[in-house]
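Sorry to interrupt, but I need a hand with the structure work. Go ahead and set the record down below:
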Amino acid sequence: MPIDVRYDPENVFARILRGDIPSDRVYEDTEFVAFRDIQPSAPVHIVLIPRGQPPTSAASVGDSDAPWLGRMVVLASRIAREQGLTPGGYRLVVNCGDDAGQTVGHFHLHILGGWILGPVA
C-alpha cells in the first residue's frame, strides 16, 4: 500500500468499524476498537484501530494527533496486560507503507505476544 494521505472509506478497517465485516473484538469504546487478527503472527495478535477516519499511516500523523495517539498506546498496554502478556513481554508494531508491510490505509497498531518474539533491531 503506497503511503497516501487520502482515506478510503471502503478499507477493511472502516468496514469492520461499520459492522460490514465481522471481527472478534476484545475491546471497544467511543474512540477505539481492538480485535483479533485473522492472520496472526503470534499466539496473541490484536489489532487496535481508532474510530472515524484517522491518518492513513504513521507518515501522515501530525502534532494534532498526539493526544489520541498517546491514548492509543496507553490502551494498547492495558489490552496487553488484560491478555496476560505483561509477565513475558509483548510488542507494539506500527507498519508504515509497502516496504514495512502496511496493507490497510487506516492507522493501526498491532499488539503481539504469547511467545518469544526475538529481537527486531
